[in-house]
Amino acid sequence: MRADSPCSLSQKAAVFLDDVRFNYEGPSSFELSIDRLTVETGERLAIQGASGSGKSTLLRLIAGLLSPQNGRLDVFGSDLARATDTERRQFRLHTIGFVFQDYPLVESLSALENVLLPLRLVPKATMTGEDVDRARSLLRRLDLPDSYEVKPAALSQGERQRVAIARALVHEAPLLLADEPTTGLDPQRTEELLDLLFALQKERGLTILAASHDPALAERFGKAVSIESLSTGARC
Amino acid sequence: MLSALRHALALSWRSLRHEPRKAAALTTALWIAFSLPVLTWLSTQHLESSLFARSESTPILLGSPGNDYDLALSSLYFRSRPRETLPIATLTSIEAESPGLVVPIYLGHSLQGRPIVATSRSYFDVRGLTAESGRLPLQLGEIVVGAGVARELRLEVGDRLRNDLTNLYDLSGAYPFLLEVVGILASTRSADDDAVFTGLKTAWTLDGRMHGHDAVQPEDILGDENGTLEASAAIFLFAELNAQSRQSFHLHGDPDAAPISALLVFPSSRKQHDLLLGSIALRSDLQAIRPRKIVESVLEIVLRLQRLLGAGFLAIAVAMTLLVGTVLGLTARLRQRDLQLFRELGASRARVSAILGAEIVWVCCGALFASGATATATYFLLHHLLPL
User: Fold this and answer.
1) What is the pLDDT of residue B117?
2) Using a CB-CB distance cutoff of 8 angstroms, which residues of chain B are in contact with residue A100?
3) Closest CA in chain B for residue A113
């Protein structure tokens, strides 16, 4: 597998981090330091690293769920390092699709309703029949055609995972962040999922950043970078 | 804003449906907290208006000196029998003294547990009682029953039944008589619905003061002591009042001393009202009460009790609110991951709070709806079905 340089800077950058520092405050302190990272629009990048190395924290910084103490963090031109909570929240609603590591679903909602959840949370939310059709289509593409009305409790781990992925894609955000998206999936399902993500990347010009400790996923992504290499002090 | 509210309501509704037992428990707790004060208030209002309506329609009540509460409750609501009686001559003397209407009431007998109220025809006029079927009693041995009695005992015009034995162990007492139902009163949702009405002479017959028997032949007379005849036991005493036997019934003893329980007095003017009260105040054999005053004092006790209950209900409401708050707080903790997910997806704190708050709105709406239905049903029950 070839790890392309993530340091190239261009006008098409979807994600650009420069000298970003983030400290977790609390009893178990942790510091993430990213000297520079650039991801072009429509590009896909796997971020590798051991557990606890800061992959999830990096994704959460890019999603605007965390705010860095220092540095520059631009996502699709928005300076998230200086954005307010409200700005980051609204940015997240419209720009980011996030597949969380533990695939959380709302147990009281059906699979279809879980997929549609981000659309219900948008201010001035108006959910159209087109949105519902898109959600159904995603479930079908993720091989969950019979799960529309099924509650999460009745879904297998793999099915829950695919519902969570459909939810991250439903509002057609230009940036998909996936934290360990294939954990728990068998090789066949992993292949199918990655095929779908790559197909969507082509169709929509989607930018995908995935954090994983699985070298196979990094290989399938074609472009990968280790989290440790981002904080070596090397500047592009 | 509206669509955000709609989505918050939809999400919270799903959450409540996901845990129906919790939703039902919360709704029930709030329903109890909402309903108890309302039901108590409705019942008290109904009791107050019913008691006042009857007491206000009776300006003065005359009876033997004694417990005025007892006199009011027995004469207005037939709840008990006054221990002391008045002679029927009182009726004549009051009629002579005070222009207006004087209605006698005589209580003491019962029919299958329902009080028999002996009175004059005027009683039906002053209470607005009309026969829904049949007619009002005219002759000895005839009764007319209240709507409630007719319904409960399934009585129809023409039915015949005996009054209750007053004292099982009084061998010399009068035997029960067979009485004929000649009319059923239209319901007035008052104490009249649960009473049996008859004439005074019928009640005196049930007392044993009046009786009827075969014609007495000279050989049937065993002795004569100061005008009181001692007759042979062979003379047949009628135990039934009918067309044949009715004419033979007669009163023994002083007709003016025949008993009544009370007199309802309707003076012709305010002046006559005050004059009569002044006159009765000077008499030791009679007491006059104004039922409204008695009812007011009874209601004062009820209102005090209501205030006491109100404080209790406030405590219950506070406890229920705390309980609901605790349950919702625990729910929020249990749903911490859901709420965190909403935030991670981009929902504002206000939106997350709205989703949680919408659950409270749903529960409160359910409880209010149930309370409204309960209050409506209670109101209907109190005003249309249950007599006082």
Assistant:
1) 94
2) 341, 344
3) B11
- Kindly tell me the sign of the dihedral angle through the C-alpha atoms of B149, B155, B157, B162: negative
Question: Any CB–CB contact under 8 A between B13 and chain A?
Answer: no
Task: List all residues 6 or more positions away from B140 whose beta carbon is below 8 Å from its beta carbon.
Answer: B199, B201, B202, B205, B210, B241, B246, B249
Q: Is B351 on the interface with A (CB under 8 A)?
A: yes
- Beta carbons within 8 Å of B76's beta carbon, 6+ residues apart: B54, B55, B58, B61, B191, B291
Give me B87's structure tokens.
Answer: 């002679």
Q: Tell me which chain B residues have a C-beta less than 8 angstroms from the C-beta of A65.
A: 344
**Minimal Cα–Cα distance from B11 to chain A, Å?**
8
Specify the pairing of strand B259-260 against strand B86-87.
antiparallel
State ipTM. 0.83
- Using a CB-CB cut-off of 8 Å, the residues of chain A touching B23 are none
Q: Is A101 on the interface with B (CB under 8 A)?
A: no
Given B3, B343, B345, which is nearest A118 (Cβ)?
B345
* Helix, strand, coil content of chain B in percent (nearest 5): 55, 20, 25
Token pair, residue B298, equals: 């009874």
How many CB pairs below 8 A link A and B? 65
Confidence at B279, pLDDT banded by 50, 70, 90: confident
Q: Residue B239 half-sphere exposure, CB side, CA atoms within 13 Å?
A: 9
Report pLDDT digits (tens) over B235-262: 777 777 777 777 777 777 788 888 999 9
Contact A80, B337 (CB under 8 A): no
* Average pLDDT estimate for B372-380: 90
> What is the pLDDT, as a whole number, of residue B386?
61
- Give the pLDDT score at A26: 66
**Signed CA dihedral, A200, A206, A211, A215: sign only:** positive
Q: pLDDT category, A4, cuts 50, 70, 90?
A: very low
- Quote the CA–CA distance of B68 and B53 in Å, as a whole number: 19
Q: A residues 79-98 near B, CB within 8 Å?
A: 86, 89-90, 92-94, 96, 98
Tell me, rounded to whole angstroms, the distance of Cα A126 from its chain centroid.
Answer: 24
Greatest CA separation for chain B: 115
